[in-house]
Amino acid sequence: MAAGEPVAPGATSTPPGDSTRFLISDLCSELEAYLEPGEVEEVYRAYLLGAESHEGQTRKTGEPYIYHPLAVARTMAEMRMDHQAISAAILHDVMEDTATSKDRIHAEFGEEVAELVDGVSKLTHLQFQSKAEAQAENFRKMMLAITRDIRVILIKLADRLHNMRTLGVMRPDKRRRIAKETLEIYAPIAQRLGMNAMRRELEELGFSAKHPWRAAVLERAVHRAGGNRREPMRNIEQAICSRMETAGIVGRISGREKSLYSIYRKMRDKRHSFEEVFDVFAIRIIVDDIDTCYRSLGLVHNLYKPVPGRFKDYIAIPKSNGYQSLHTILFGPQGIPIEIQIRSTEMDRVAESGIAAHWQYKAGSESSRTAQSRARDWLKDVLEIQNSVGNSIEFLENVKVDLFPDEVYTFTPGGDILVLPRDATPIDFAYAVHSDVGNRCVAAKIDRQLAPLSVRLQSGQTVEIVTSPGARPNPAWLSFVVTGKARTGIRHCLKSMQSEEARTLGERLLEKALETLDSHLSHISPARLDQMLDAMQLEDLDALLIDIGLGNRMATLVARQMVGKDSPEPDTTAATTTLAVKGTEGLVLSYARCCHPIPGDPIIGQLSAGRGLVVHRENCRNVLHESRERSDRTIALEWSHEPQLQFTAAVRTRTANRRGALADMAAVIADHGSNIEHISFNEQDGHSTAMTFLLTVSDRQHLAQIMRGLRRLPDVLRISRQRG
Q1: Whole-angstrom Cα distance, residue 294 to residue 308?
Q2: CA torsion sign, 394 to 398 to 399 to 400?
Q3: Cα 49 from Cα 8, distance rounded (Å)
Q4: CATH topology assigned to domain 420-482
Q5: For a FRET experiment, which of 73, 318, 550, 703 has its CA 20 to 30 Å from that of 612?
Q6: Angstrom distance (rounded) from CA 429 to CA 231
């Protein structure tokens, strides 16, 4: 199709006062520069369908709606995208806002275009409980579409970019909401995909819309300060240029302005003044190849002194989005800090276009392939998060966590590089290697030295994860991990463990209840069981046992229902069957903090909805009342012959106020193989202090040995075990 052919209704005229309106003829002219004539013709057919579908619709600006899809397609054309992506960009709103169906798009343009349009379309036909849930579910749908075809996010980013450019017609509250979403989700996604040009514009437009007053104040400050910078900048550029000419290095040098949003963010996050942030001269040097990059680095370091610790080699170790460059900070004339970025022409293209460079520069760009593969690695992690989370809001929060811009570069023992967010821990590292490694992690070595699992990793460290087949995640890990993959993996594993352990406990409780009725689970007919499950609206027997194990249903009531109306009353004369507690049951069996039961204590179990079985000492005041009021919620328990866990016991002492008394007590406790988990103090008078120790013990005999050792100390006036 020739660029000057007639256009369909809705795009033949230019809105009043706008002489630069982008028309279908302009789009076709741009596409003819790199697409085949048949492909341009297909884009034009997509335009005809879009114009027909949106006929009569207008935007809030008052212009025909078709101008928006054309503007989105223009951005895609500037990225040099293929004809299918351009066609999908033109049709991206027809499924959502018109009666045009996916089947029609599939019939006329093929499966790829139909899937791209469907991936960008929102879920408008479903009802959600809140706007946040709708936003999260739409985001999850889009991200899952991206894992199938990454062009979906390029269309969505181009769509968001044009919406941000025309945001001024919206109500102030809606402007702020859309701008917040852009800054929190879409700009970070553009950065994660290496599309820095797109990210910068989204950030600038989002900042101006969300904080118009702050943006205006900063813009005025930058304009005032700009005049004082021109002469020093020119002198620095000329000095570098002259030195490069002398060395025979050919390249381009340009001053780089900091964006308003990056200035604002540094002022906010690092609590710097405007002068501290703005008083950094930024220069970019573009040369032909990698070898010249390093030669140029030596040249500028020879010209101005480098700031120690501020050099970063992103060529040897690219960022997670494929970005490559050399970064260094220099002491310039009169101590002016100079930020230098040195990269090749190809690296510069990829730095600006990111994953879009895969389509722009297909003819052998290694950097663009790196950006593509790293983006796919990230999307693979996103898909793994989706398969493990419970709902769309949790998914959105976990993916947001993974959009951190700051990174640390760590090494596996084999020398492979793992890029993690700032403040990542060995647990994050373990889950980045593989979910199974994270789930079985028991310890970590950093640079061959054992280190806590909560320590923050630094760039350049070598991390080795120690695993054990029987290990499992600790719920406490959730308080310090930072990656979405680690957080999701821990939660998923804990949920699976809880379900498995709740089922086992529920089966034991139900069997015990049936035994008092002279029955057994295997005696219950399948028909009777199915009838009960239907009445309870449960899928299967496992779901019922999990409910019992979590304390949501009483085993005694369920047992009576199973046996039937004519079931005999429980045989109270028969010996009471007790459950044996080993100490390793896990998440659905916990130990009361009020009385701290330990092996050797007479114990009783209390069922708590959602928590499962809580073990108390029989004489605990908190459970005595409950056992009288609700005997169906208390269960007789006993310790197994070989408990397999360390337990916590509370010991109260009254000690003379003497220097070194606490150290003597700690030494005795350590000598008896115990750890102090916590100490609390309460001064009684000027001569003595009441102290409560939480100690780790194996059983009552171990605790008695510790207490006898403490009682022998001259400063210990009184000692007793704390009762609930």
Answers
A1: 18
A2: positive
A3: 9
A4: Ubiquitin-like (UB roll) (3.10.20)
A5: 703
A6: 47
Nearest to 551 by CA among 626, 603, 625, 622: 626
Residue 251, both tokens: 């390249």
Place of tokens 């002198």: 235
DSSP 12: S
Are the beta carbons of 426 and 446 closer than 8 angstroms?
Answer: yes
Q: Which residue has the tokens 């027809």?
A: 94
Give me 268's structure tokens: 């906010």
Q: What's CA 306's distance to the chain center, in Å? A: 36
How far apart, in Å, do the first and last CA atoms of the chain sit?
86
Domain boundaries, the chain: 24-165, 222-368, 420-482, 494-639, 647-721
Token match 């950094």: residue? 280
**How would you label 498-536 residue by residue, b for 16+ Cβ within 10 Å and e otherwise?**
bbbbbbbbbbbbbbbbbbbbebebeebeeeeeeebeeee
Q: Indicate the fold that domain 24-165 takes in CATH.
A: Hypothetical protein af1432 (1.10.3210)
Segment 423-449, tens digit of pLDDT = 889 999 999 888 889 988 888 898 888
The reported pLDDT for the residue numbered 359 is: 55
Radius of gyration over alpha carbons of the chain, in Å?
34
647-721, CATH topology level: Alpha-Beta Plaits (3.30.70)
334: left (phi over 0), alpha (psi -120 to 50) or beta: left
Phi, psi of 315 (to 5 degrees): -80, -50
Identity of residue 421 = P
Range of weakest confidence among 35-49, 194-208, 615-629, 650-664: 615-629
3-state DSSP assignment of residue 690: strand
From the candidates 26, 55, 97, 181, give the one annotated as an active-site residue.
97
Choice among 96, 108, 397, 715 that is catalytic:
96
pTM above 0.70, yes or no: no
CA dihedral sign of residues 550, 555, 558, 563: positive
Give per-residue pLDDT as tens, 103-136: 899 899 988 898 888 877 764 444 445 566 666 6
Active site residue 547: no
93 annotated active-site: no
| pLDDT tens-place string over residues 554-593 | 777 788 778 774 444 544 433 345 566 665 555 567 788 8
556 and 634 Cβ atoms separated by less than 8 Å: no
Instruction: Report the 10 Å Cβ neighbour count for 31.
Output: 25
**Tokens standing for residue 542:** 């496992």
Q: For residue range 290-345, what is the model confidence (pLDDT) as tens digits?
A: 999 999 999 999 998 898 888 889 888 887 777 889 999 888 887 778 889 999 98
Helix (H/G/I), strand (E/B), else coil: 691: strand
- Residue 47 burial (CB count, 10 A): 25
CATH class of residue range 222-368: alpha beta
